[in-house]
Amino acid sequence: MSFASNCLVAQSGGPTSAINSSLSGVIEAALNNPKINTVYGAVNGIKGVLNEEVLNLNDIFSDSENIRTLRTTPSMFLGSCRYKLPTVEANENEYKIIFDFFKKYSIKYFFYIGGNDSMDTVAKLNKYAIDNSYEMQIIGIPKTIDNDLVHTDHTPGFGSAAKFVATSVLEMTHDTFCYNIPSVVIVEIMGRNAGWLTAAAALARNEYSDAPDLIYLPEIPFCTEKFIQDIKNVQKTKKNVVVAVSEGIRDEEGNYISATTAPNDSFGHAQLSGTGKSLESLIKSHMDCKIRSVELNILQRSASHISSLTDITEAALVGQKAVEVATNGVSGKMIAMKRINNAPYEVEFVTVDVSEVANKEKAIPREWINEEGNHVNQQLIDYMKPLIQGEVDITFKNGLPNYLPITHLTKRNQ
Predict the structure, then answer these.
(1) pLDDT tens for each residue of 73-99
(2) Which domain holds residue 81?
(3) What is the pTM of this model?
(4) DSSP 296-354
(5) Do residues 282 and 295 lie in contact, with contact meaning Cβ atoms separated by under 8 Å?
(6) 14 is in an annotated binding site
(7) Which cofactors are required for activity (predicted)?
(8) Strand residue runs (E) in 53-209
């Protein structure tokens, strides 16, 4: 069965500062591609397909200024979901609903922007299309601030989040050093199993400050006794200690250090909270000094006011590349980035089998973490530094960033 040439795009998983840039790349390329008639957007990911919640993006983005504004708008214009598409064996009816939707709207190209769980959806839909002779192209577009997708040098969204983390740590360092009293500041940063984003705190170091003095990542088992001793060792030479910790740090038995762990999400992932507060209490029981913990939480996901131009630019190019390969007959692939040079920084865009990406995670190489397991090595800093370069030109209105309205999402809460 062959469909006419309309396309559908959707977003899934956690928000970033760059995922709308990838969406803008898809929309811009699709509107200018003679093989595509109408560009549709599913609201709230694959759930929007199942519920037939759809927007005609041709109407919204006929004005090219809206595309430019979308590129620097945070979070997810189309909304998101965290939904694990069941296997065909478990629930084939959902696949029939999805492909009936594709048929109804004459969808030949489907683009799904998300992380490794979203790539699982792409892989399942692509296999179902092949097994049932649906002639369509299904492409995965990567995003995640966690930077944990395999087979790509890095992911859109990471560079901007890393820039926000490093900037926040730098600013907190200035705040900490204004007092001439012993203190410890603990900064809790997102990262369940991979510490890429927490490692980005190291980019805050400069010619006048070594902060963060200590960095703890989930790749290394966490020892509370060593943690206290590490802080005491730093305070032998400086009064103010800044510590960056991943929310997902665990002890040698694999138990999370977080004070509270909520029920798992729909993908089976632990919902972590309270790592910084837990460590704050631990230090207070062993040391007599001023102690604060700061949880960056969702702030690091959509801080478009401090996004990376490199990240935003690459995200749009990834979206454009997805349209290019799909309209050339490619399916079941994810767009990936391959680093060609570090100085000067250069990448090329390639495709990888989405089945090789789905449900897998990329950890930081052990050799990029120092021997003590409490900081990162220069190789990791050299890897991250190009990804935070450049500032995005954001327009302002009434003193605040001017983002594209999301009335179709906000009106549901009224």
Answers:
(1) 999 999 999 888 999 899 999 999 999
(2) 6-144+304-359+390-413
(3) 0.92
(4) -GGGGTS-GGG-BHHHHHHHHHHHHHHHHHHHTT--SEEEEEEEEEETTEEEEEEEEEG
(5) no
(6) yes
(7) Mg(2+)
(8) 54-56, 107-114, 137-142, 183-189
Is the torsion defined by CA of 374, 377, 380, 386 positive or negative?
Answer: positive
Q: Is 342 assigned a ligand-binding role in the annotation? A: no
193 in the same domain as 277: yes
Same domain, 308 and 212: no
The response to whether 334 counts as a known ligand-binding position is: no
Q: Is there a domain that residue 230 lies in? A: yes
- The secondary structure of 92-124 as a DSSP string is HHHHHHHHHHHHHTTEEEEEEEESHHHHHHHHH
Residues 99 and 16 in one domain: yes
CA separation for the pair 369, 99 (Å, rounded): 46
Tell me the Ramachandran region of residue 34: left when phi exceeds 0, alpha when psi lies from -120 to 50, beta otherwise.
alpha
Q: Is 361 annotated as a binding residue?
A: no
Q: How far is CA 21 from CA 127, 186, 394, 395, in A?
A: 28, 32, 13, 16
Do residues 189 and 269 both lie within one domain? yes
| pLDDT one-digit tens code per residue, 124-153 | 999 999 999 999 999 999 999 999 999 999
- Copy the structure tokens of residue 331: 């399916």
167, with CB counted inside 10 A (0-12, 13-18, 19+), is middle
Please give the span between the terminal C-alpha atoms of the chain, in angstroms, as a whole number: 42
Q: How far is CA 60 from the centre of its chain?
A: 25
Residues serving a catalytic function are 146
65 is in an annotated binding site: no
Task: Verify that 295 and 311 share a domain, yes or no.
Answer: no
For the stretch 315-326, pLDDT in tens is: 999 999 999 999
Question: By the 8 A CB rule, do 185 and 136 touch?
Answer: no
